[in-house]
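Fold this complex.
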Amino acid sequence: MWLVAVVIVPLVAALGAGFIGRIPRSARPGVLFLPAFLAWIGLLVCGISAFQGNLPTAFSLAWFPQLEVNLDFNLTGLGWLLGLLITGIGSLILLYAGGYMGGAKQEARLYAYLYLFMFAMLGLAFSDNLILTFVFWELTSVVSYLLISFKHEYAEARRNALQGLLITGLGGMALMAGFILLASATGTWRISELALLGDQVVQHPHYIGILTLVLLGAFTKSAQFPFHVWLPNAMSAPTPVSAYLHSATMVKAGVFLLALFTPILGQTPAWTWTLSLVGGITFLHGCILGLLHQDLKKILAGTTIAVLGMLVFLLGLGTDKAFHAAILLLLAHAFYKASLFMMAGNVDQATGTRDLRRLQGLRRLMPWTALTAGLAAFSKMGLPPFWGFIGKEYAYKAGLDTAVPIWGTGTLLLGSLLLFAIAVKVAIIPFWTKPAATSAESKVSEVKLTMRWPPLTLAMLGLLTGLAPSFLQFPVDKAVATITNAPFEASIYLWQGFNLPLLLSGLTVLGGLAFFGLTRSPLLNRLAFKPLADSIYDICLKGVLDTAKHTTKTLQSGYLRNYLLIILASTFVLVFYKLYRFGGWPSLDWSGAGQPLILGVLLLMVIAIWSATTAHSRLVALISLGSLGYGVALIFAFFGAPDLAITQILVETLTVVLFAWVIAKLPDYHPLSSQRSRWIDAGISLTAGAMLTVLVLKAQIIELGPRISELMVDWSLPQAFGANVVNVILVDFRALDTFGEVIVIAIAALGVWALLTRPYQPKPKPASNPNPSKKES
Amino acid sequence: MPAAPLLQIATRYLAPILAVLSLLVLYRGHNLPGGGFIGGLLLAAAILLVAIAEGWDVVNKKLPVDPLTLLTLGLGIALLSGLPSLFFGQPYLTGQWLPGLELPIIGKVKLGTPIVFDLGVYFAVTGFTLKCANAFAEES
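Structure:
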């Protein structure tokens, strides 16, 4: 119950955010901070209590119990850690956002979205039902769309928001399919039950399908290569959003899902290879993106991609040490990256630019931001005694401990080198270089308090936790235990003595500095470049849109005859295919046809057909068709279906009457169609006739199930007090169907009325009709 | 519309007969060929006959309800006829019957919600046909 309360708090806050305008501007950041902070405290206290066994860890509420889709929540160590990050960082981000937006247009909308996002992420962290997980998963995508397009007056923001939504949305669909497949393979929707199944899923014949679909979902969300393209573009969102969604939390959802599903799907060659390959490529590719960009936020987005890749890579390694390192790194990244993003926002707001080449010597002008940037960058570089150092050391340890240490460690070392170089580029150079000679930036002043403290707090956390790592051991152990699906305990040390990881750290520093030197070369300082993957996305999107346009143009010609032709032709193909494939061919029963009365009726019908097709007047054709219908009615009557016969006669009669009214309004009859199109029409008519004939004949010999008509005949009188079984079926046995048909009739009548009644014509404008005497026109 | 005396005189006798016949067909439908659909078409035919012979003005003036209202009325009757079964804890639209009655002239009568339902169908079909014909005739 407490778990749901924590999840609900941000939702309530999101609904209340609309009233932020009534609060004095200076108090807004504090008011925004409070709900998230309360949720954080609640989660921390209740979580510890629950892990000690004093509070329940699970909560369930019926939603669709018939489908086993319920509001199942469960506290896992991993979810707890993620939840603490979401609410903890979230409270700081909201404090920051209150300052950053400070009275801007539509600020309440941003706060509401941020809280809605917090709600979705918390739900995702604690959901124990696959469907519920999917719902929250999609909600994060939708809120991300709303936040990226927050400045919706810019076409680029709209485009980037759509890109993010399309990519993560497609992944979400794959995830849904994967979940359904998973549930059908195991018979349960609950994640906690799935985790207990051992390798039942792994040995299931659908395993590869489930794995592919789930990985697609996780990879798109966590911006893994080649789906990473949306993340740098998501930077068109306001900076608090980038700091929160696109660095610290939402993009971690994919990693979270992979970690959560490690006990269910993991530890197979397919899993290990895919994760370490995709993660490794993403890691290095993200670093390269970070080196190539010149926009502060895009560089940071590049490194976010890199770290996400690193996490996936570590999860792929599959050892306990790698899981441990992944959680440590996830924490380190959450601390420094959110802080760096807010730093970028401060620089942006103070100077009006995020272009690195224009930012110099800000140290004196923005001392607090410079301090923040320095602290966060040291953690990111992995220097002691920051938490980032611990994360990197443990990652190296995990890399050395694999089957092929050279690959694992090599990838980690190369990536860390690049991250080091980028950290220098982003957080040191803008502040610690000589001030530019131009006076434009000398007017720059430090940002306000509410924007100074949140990033500094996070950056300080990176330092303090590094100095006293044992504080975080409890949540880290709990989170790793969720991934390994077994109790886990490992002390975290800052100083582990002189060993190989330390040597590698030294190499990282030297190599990083060397790489940084390379990036200073003018070759890499191009203004803006468009990543190849972005162009590929554009080509794909254009292809889809063009195909849609082309199909629409071809199919929607606007001519009724073309629509009819398409509908009939597709019906013919499908029905004949099925008729050909299904059941045998019926043997015709000619026994009734020899009777003189039937022969006479048939002869009349043939004459009526001939008369209708060759008529030179509409009325003649119409009456001929009517006589044809009478012929059919006679046959019905002859073979003992009086209800049908009466109905047929009445319908034919009324149809002729109705048509007669229409004919009076039509222009004179002229054969306008060419000989060729007449032959085509004849072919279509004959095909339609043949199809119906075969259909009716086959309907007699195909029996899909036991016949219900005899039962209805038996029940009619004793149960429904009616001797006419046709009518009893219509008004009693199948009354609901009849009611549906009556509704269809009503809709058809409204349709006819709407089509034939003169459309509403707006009153002519006074200017165009100055003379009121011309009213009769 | 030019006057067609023969048709007008025939209509004067035929239309009422058709209308009464339609009610008869509606009622007997439960045991013999007939029912709400056929009855509704018959009633519509009777009214259309008047429309052809006398013109739509006469029909519109003499007909107490507008076709669309008739259609709505039919829908409403059919909808409500299913409700009584709910009071007996049975699924919607389950037929409910009164005990059989012995009436003079007509004979044994058995009334139940399926007949009411059929009455709804009867009105709906009439309303539909009249509305379509009316729309065709008035469109110009």
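The radius of gyration of chain A is 36 Å.
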